[in-house]
């Protein structure tokens, strides 16, 4: 019984993480760092910089395709309260859906 409860809690917390953390955020700028934070349970992290603004956040496992696609120097855009992340690389554009709700 405990095993199933832990799985359910994990699934619920992932949904909350996406809807509470990613969905309401805004960011816009160039990807300057992409790394695995070994001190924080091997969390995937990115840093996006524009002018004097630095956006640093964890990338949820639901966004694995996004994580694998992005490269340093890519321009990354996300509107507040949006499910879409847009990545521009040169003349190419690709969008990723957060699927938060």
Instruction: Give the termini separation.
Output: 28 Å
Q: Give the strand tally.
A: 6
Number of helices: 2
Indicate how many domains the architecture comprises.
Answer: 1
Going by helix content, strand content and strand pairing, the class is alpha+beta
What average pLDDT do the residues reach?
80
Shape: globular
Give the uncertain stretches in residue-range form: 1-13
Main sheet specs: 6 strands, antiparallel
Query: Which value, in Å, is the CA radius of gyration?
Result: 15 Å
> In what order do the strands lie side by side in the largest sheet?
3-2-1-4-5-6
Helical content, roughly? 25-40%
- Content of β-strand: 35-45%
- Which sequence of SSEs, written as H and E, runs from N to C? HEEEHEEE
Brief summary:
The chain has helices at residues 2-22, 64-69, and strands at 27-37, 43-50, 53-59, 75-78, 84-89, 92-97.
Fill in the keyword field for this structure.
single chain; 101 residues; alpha+beta; six-stranded antiparallel beta sheet; 6 strands; 27% helix; globular; disordered N terminus
Report on this model:
There is one protein chain. The protein is of the alpha+beta class. It is 27% helix and 42% strand. The chain has two helices and six strands. It has helices spanning 2-22, 64-69, and strands spanning 27-37, 43-50, 53-59, 75-78, 84-89, 92-97. The chain has a six-stranded antiparallel beta sheet.
